[in-house]
Amino acid sequence: MNRQSAKVFAAIVVACFLVATRASAQFAVPAPAKPDGATLFSRQCGTCHIATAEGGPRQGPSLYGVFGRKAGSVAGFAYTGAYAESGIVWDAQTLDTYLTNPQAMIKGTVMAYRQAAPAIRQTIIAWLKDQH
Fold this sequence. Notes:
Blueprint: H1 3-26, H2 37-44, H3 81-86, H4 92-100, H5 102-105, H6 118-130
């Protein structure tokens, strides 16, 4: 490549960079929508739980009406003994602690789900509160 060709090539590269930079600034891709509580519940909890008044339990008890309910008290669901003995009454704080690490809160639970992200826990908990 001769000197003139190199200069033309360099100018083209710089021009392409500038156009691409301006184009990306003008046409920024919007951030993906944050999932709502119903979507998060469905994706993260819905395999094992339901949140409706109708329907029996799945691998876990129904979470319909969970706020104010004593742990281990859904009729027809076979809990480990630790739930009934825990004395826990579900509210936003107890659910938040539980979802962070169920095994630390209730020894012997078979609940495998853990959610480290506070924003996700809060979105799910708020949605559950609205369901009854």
